[in-house]
Amino acid sequence: MRIVIAEDAALFRAGLTRLLEDEGHQVCAAVADGGAMLAAVAQHEPDVVVADIRMPPTHTDEGLRAALELRRTHPATAILMLSQYIETRYAAELLQGSPAGVGYLLKDRVADVTEFTDAVARVAAGGTALDREVVSQLLNASRQAGGLDPLTARERDVLGLMAEGRSNAGIAAALVLSRGTVEKHVASIFDKLGLPASGGDNRRVLAVLRYLGS
Amino acid sequence: MPERHNGDVSTALAAVRAVARAPFTGRARRELLYCLLGLPFIVFLPFVGFFAVIALAQLAAGPWVTHGNPSVLAVLAAVAAAGLLILLLVTTGVTRALGGVCRDLARWLLGEHVTAPPARRPGLDARLRDGAGWRALAYLLLKVPVAALGAWAVIIYWGAGLVNLTYPFWWASFRNHPAGVRLSPVPVITPFGWLHGSFQIATFPGTFAAFAAGVIMLLAAPWVTRAVVSADRWLIRGLLGPGSLTQRLRDLEQTRALAVDDAAAQLRSLERNLHDGAQIRLATLAMNLGMAKKKLGTAGEVPDLEAVRDLVGAAHQGAKDALAELRELARGIHPAVLDNGLADALASLAAGNAIPAELAVSIPVRPTPAIESIAYFCAAELLANATKHSEARKIRIAVAGQDRVLVLRVTDDGQGGADPDRGTGLAGLAQRVAVVDGRLDIDSPPGGPTRVTVELPLRA
Questions:
Q1: CA B118, CA B126: separation in Å to the nearest integer?
Q2: Would you call A15 and B284 a contact, using CB atoms and an 8 Å cutoff?
Q3: Which of B282, B284, B311 to mutate to test the interface with A (most CBs of A within 10 A)?
Q4: Which chain A residues touch B288 with a CB distance below 8 Å?
Q5: Is the minimum CB–CB distance between A107 and chain B shorter than 8 Å?
Q6: How far apart are CA A27 and CA A13, in angstroms?
Q7: Which residues in chain A touch residue B294, judged by CB atoms under 8 angstroms apart?
Q8: Do A113 and B293 touch (CB under 8 A)?
Q9: A84 and chain B: CB distance < 8 Å anywhere?
Q10: Contact at 8 Å (CB) between A85 and A45?
Q11: 3-state SS class at A82
Q12: What are the tens digits of pLDDT across the range A2-37?
């Protein structure tokens, strides 16, 4: 995969570059702010952009602004946002419209190389990668509102992993279940929550997130 | 009771001696000089103010004179211009600055220590409602008649008094006219007739009357200047200090707001330091370990041992860097050595400085922890400033506890030109110091040397 990295901390940027190159990806450019990121994307047309949310000059959310701009100008380019903290508002902005090819992870997740590269691959393939912190915040809100009452504990786990953007295979691996069991759980969740059954992972994520967000 | 009698006599003698000596004391000299330095107030301020008002009014109302007299419009414009001028002087801080000059002058010559009002808060509203600025304006306006009185005291009592003393000495040489010629008599100026003289002398014996008048005037002179100066002191204490209870309350509100802002800014900078420093180092460290772990696999041979060594080495270094970073950060929040007292903390600060810093500490009574902390961070900031910007070869830190005040002075032999309006460091310090009713004084002429004095109460 061809990747552009935007991250202002030089140390982390270098580590990220090394990690992705070790995994056999090509890092076309590694830049330090939102403007340079847009320029690099225009120049290299990468498959995925891995970007920090908080970057110079204002050190607030210019990474996110640049990413939203990118969603408009290069809808085919997948974007994985990294941050040191999780803001549900940022996630909502990022997922607005469609969760296809979008990810939002804590920087800490980079420590689990396989999990991180899976997330990059998933986003690049048009999927979603939502940090479990975001998902647990969403789940919490829903649980307090009583929206998750019909579900069993296991079904809630499956729902969370679905919201993170994982496929049935991914969910099965994470929970050490067979694919068939996962499929049964998924069907039961959709039935209990009254969600429209849908084929693709993307529409599934969208449905789940809509449910959790409402 | 002969002793009692002796006592009375000696007291009376002492009083006479004191009266006779009064004109020659340093205090009389300093008060005389103070009155002399008041002259610019009666010459400069009213004229500048008058012409500024006329100029502004002409700008506003066109021709100043219509049919020989100012039109109603012109008068209104002049009033508006005067108001505008006053508003400008207060909001730009000119009155505060002039008040500061007067306060410094009074401290220097009269030993009148009046605490400066707390620093002004930023923002137009705070500038308009700047009580200290308005009180300084009132002082400057009242200073004009007081300074006029002072000038009168200097010219009549000291000046004319001295002149009167001289009459017997020059009379013989200048009035030795031939017999029959009649010269007009010479007027003698006294406080009771200071325009045309209260009496006139025409003969040599008469000059002794003038001499006697001069002696009496000079003996009275120091008391007259002292009376004028006392009035001025009273005005300074009332108008150039921190102010009345209401004013004090407003000042406290201001400094509380400053303290809250300062605390918020410190938290923000702390978050920023953590985010950009230790946190990112630890994230990178975890990433390096993650990569190494993946390369090591779960069992068996490791294909790329060299890369693993490299990654573990980087992680190890990262852990040490993160520790150092956290240690620095913790020290920036509260240096542990400060618990042993300011002297120890400043010694370790001075020892770690790039430019040699000489330290002199004399603190008989230990200040409260909050004051120690403020003093420490002031010293650290000033030391860092001097090291970074002044190109000094030597820095001197002096801390002295006087009765209820802690005085911290950082001096360097560098190029000077430190300005609190440029950069946030010095202004931030002034704010932090103002929160506990302290004051920050910067003396840094271009070319140096720089001397910054921080005065803090011992307890806050």
A1: 12
A2: yes
A3: B284
A4: 15
A5: yes
A6: 11
A7: 113-114
A8: yes
A9: yes
A10: no
A11: strand
A12: 999 999 999 999 999 999 999 999 999 999 999 999
Nearest residue to A209 (alpha-carbon basis) of A162, A172, A168: A162
* B139 in Cβ contact with B239 (< 8 Å): yes
For chain A, the distance separating the N- and C-terminal CA atoms, rounded to the nearest angstrom, is: 36
Find the farthest-apart pair of alpha carbons in chain B and give their distance in angstroms, rounded. 139
- The span from the CA of B160 to the CA of B197, in Å, is 10
Q: Which residue has the tokens 């004391």?
A: B25
Taking alpha carbons only, the member of A92, A78, A79, A99 closest to residue A205 is: A99
Taking CB atoms and an 8 Å cutoff, what residues of chain B touch A12? 280, 283-284, 287
Chain B residues near residue A113 by CB distance under 8 angstroms: 287, 290-291, 293-294
Sequence ranges of the domains in chain B? 21-242, 261-333, 337-457
Instruction: Judge contact between A18 and A30, C-beta under 8 A.
Output: no
State both tokens at B7.
């006592």
Size of the A and B interface in Cβ pairs below 8 Å = 48
Identify which of B275, B290, B318 has the shortest CB distance to residue A113.
B290
Please state at what angle helix B131-152 crosses helix B72-91, rounded to 10 degrees: 110
Closest CA to A49 of A25, A14, A15, A84: A25
Q: What is the CA radius of gyration of chain A?
A: 17
**Among all chains, which residue has been given the structure tokens 């990121």?**
A37
| A113–B contact, CB cutoff 8 A | yes
Q: Judge whether A57 is closer than 8 Å to chain B, CB to CB.
A: no
Whole-angstrom Cα distance, residue B270 to residue B326? 11
Give the bridge partners for B408, in sequence order: B399, B454
3-state secondary structure of A147: coil
The answer to whether the Cβ–Cβ distance between A84 and B290 falls below 8 Å is no
Residue of B nearest to A110 (CA): B287
User: What pLDDT, on the 0 to 100 scale, is given for residue B310?
Assistant: 93
Token pair for A42: 């225009």
Sort B68 into a burial class: Cβ within 10 Å, 0-12 / 13-18 / 19+: exposed
Residue that has been written with the tokens 């040490």 in this structure: B320
- Which CATH class, in words, describes the domain spanning B337-457? alpha beta
The residue-averaged pLDDT of B227-247 equals: 84
Confidence band, pLDDT 50/70/90 cuts, at residue B62: low
- Per the CB < 8 A criterion, the answer to whether B396 and B360 are in contact is yes
C-beta atoms of A54 and B275 within 8 A: yes
Q: How many helices (H) and strands (E) does chain A have?
A: 10, 6
State the ipTM, two decimals. Answer: 0.87
Does pLDDT of B399 surpass 70? yes
Interchain CB distance below 8 Å, B280 and A108? no
B324 touches chain A (CB under 8 A): no
> Can the peptide bond before residue A57 be classed as cis, meaning omega within 30 degrees of 0?
yes
B235 Cβ contact partners less than 8 Å away, ≥ 6 residues apart: B139, B142, B143, B146
| pLDDT over threshold 70, residue B194 | no
A12–B291 C-beta distance less than 8 A: no
Q: State the pLDDT confidence band at B68, using cuts at 50, 70 and 90.
A: low
